[in-house]
Amino acid sequence: MNGIADYQFIRLLGEGNHGRCWLAHPPQRLGLRFEHVAVKTLTQRAGDDNHRRLRDEMRRYATVESPYLAPLYDAGRHNDQLFYARAYQPGGSLDEAAADLSPREIVHVVACAARGAHALHEAGISHRDIKPQNVFVTDDGGMLGDLGLAQLLNRGQTVTGIGPVGAVEYLAPEAIRSSSGSRAADVWALGATLHHALTGASLYPGLVPGDLLASLRHVLSSRPLIDPDLDPHAQNIVEACLAQDPADRPLTAEELAAELDALATPDVPA
Amino acid sequence: MKVLRNRRVAVVTGDGLVGRTQHGLIIVHGHPDAVDALLTDAPLDTAAGVDRLRRAAATGLPTGIGGIVVVVEDGDGIEVTTAGPEHVSVDGIEPAPERHGDARVRLINHTGVIRLGVAFGRAGAAHDLREGLVPGSGVVLSAATRHSAAPADRDVDRGRPPDQRARHDPAPERAMPPAQGLVDASSLDVEPVIDPDPARRSSPVDSGPRIDPDPMTPVSGRRSPTQLTEIQPPAEPETTQIAPQSSRAPAALTSGHATFEVFDLSVRATGLRPPLPTATSDDTATEATQLVEGTLCSRQHFNNPLASSCQVCGISMAHGTPNLVERPRPTLGFIVFDDGTTFALDRSYAIGRELPEVDDPDMTPLVIDDPEHSVSRRHAELRLDGWDVIVRDVGSSNGTRVWDPSTSSWQRLETGEPLTLRDGTYVAVGRRVFVYEPAVRA
């Protein structure tokens, strides 16, 4: 594949649960002044329903004003393939940051992502796919990108089945059994993202690669294991995000962001 | 007679040849010399040639031809003839012909999507082949919508003489309204027509974007909420190139034209949503709202009366006589397919291949990806009923089976026969298998 619609691809940036992400030159019609955009091509075929749902979701996303959400420039379909274009983030993601980040910086990046999530929630959108790969590192903090679309394009689906088994740790237990996204499920994912970015450790060391069913059973029948070496204040925050009962988690992502700000500010006692 | 009138022929990339003339449509794969010889012997641009191809497919292929599909059309239907030692796939026709054998299928008034292929790749279909011979391994035939109706096809409806049709005249015969700026803003729910302007389609050089370069500037001040914009993309050499074998091409070589559309993101989505609610102890209910009787755990989560622990907080539900209350049904668990895709049982599903047309508004389509074509278009359904999940076969070709651990064998369900899933029940839909995981274990 070397392009879609009037985009010319430069290289593949990555492959995700439901599509591929490409570095591309933006077409002139967008009137963008910079050289690169990220184009996501979705594997799901564009039936008329999917086409309409994607269009509506993208329009909803585009109307949410937040400096903590990756700007969306364009979305459409080319023959049967759906695509969208968003800002390219040269700073990378929490999964693969271009530069080493201090723990304090990581906390700040996650706080920014939480504010992005909160802006979505206030607009009635749940993100559904918050994980280190979708939290971008910017010059002055972070940004949330790439809405989870699996749910949108395959109604009722909760796990896409492709991708590393570790991805299930970002899924709140109730989000495996129920397909309606929620603030609480995104808050779980933000906590799991913070934990992974700070420790590099898995919340479920017992997961069996290649056996998703066993992994889901494991996740549903055990509690996540928070790295004991993690800073105690950070541990408390992660633990709250990963509460089994959604009502026991920080009620909003904004509330979580405020707690993370306190954690990232050196003058505030832990 | 124009073959495949009102059909869009999207070519799937591959190393065979796909050809379309007014006499027929073929897909052929094999040794280039053999393909060349076959098409020389039976040229596509004559009715006799296409007939010869069809008979060759029905009675015996020359050496070196791996597989062939010939499609012809007459007054009220199309006929698909397939042959070849290679895998020839026919997808979207039911009952499906033998997958590896030779077959002839006659379809009357068939309007669904049909996929035909020789060494069928899974690559996306590109272009709309109107006429000519191009590299490819398969086609996706679909009803030509107003998005893709070929100008030549429209001309048929307008009664142009056949000799002119064959030439695929690039000159526009009538002025088509351009898509942009002409959709009335009051027609909110109507998808605007993607401009099928023949002049644009045939324009050989101009491949530049065709919409306003500044998206913030309304086009003619009449930008519509549902406006879609067609743009002619840069040429795609790998699919528009004429095949090397085409030196003796039987017909005018005109490859199709790919269109894309972009959504106007400055438009507010219809139906703005309120902010998401914050979590409470009482929001386990699904959107589909059958009321069921259940019990509350000590933290007031609603549960199946048979549950031994709460499905939300995990707290023990062991107590004396439960107090039954009526509430909207929470999710009943999930199913996991053999490829790991997982679906929540917070709704009922109609299971099938492709996008099944679901008549019942309570059913969500669950589309199974099935490269082996073992799953029927409408295959089975999973219906939530009270606290039960019930599977039924809805008349599939290959059947729906349930694993019986006591005999270690698959038991086929009669069409329409309901079966209540139990914890860990395995169900085979064609050759795809899923397992049921209840939200709670009794």
Q: How would you sum up this structure, described in words?
A:
- The complex is a heterodimer of chains A (270) and B (442).
- With 270 residues, chain A is of the alpha+beta class.
- Chain A folds into two domains: 3-87, Phosphorylase Kinase, domain 1; 92-264, Orthogonal Bundle (Transferase(Phosphotransferase), domain 1), CATH 1.10.510.10.
- Chain A is built from eight helices and eleven strands.
- In chain A, the strands form three sheets. Chain A has a six-stranded antiparallel sheet, with helices on one face. In chain A, strands 7-8 form a two-stranded antiparallel sheet.
- The longest helix of chain A has 20 residues, at 103-122.
- The model of chain A has no long low-confidence stretch (mean pLDDT 89).
- By secondary structure, chain B is mainly β.
- In chain B, 10% of the residues lie in helices and 30% in strands.
- Chains A and B meet through strand 1, helix 1, strand 5, strand 11 and helix 4 of A and strand 9, strand 13, strand 17, strand 18 and strand 20 of B.
Q: Would you kindly provide a brief summary of this structure?
A:
The complex is a heterodimer of chains A (270) and B (442). Chain A has 270 residues and is an alpha+beta fold.
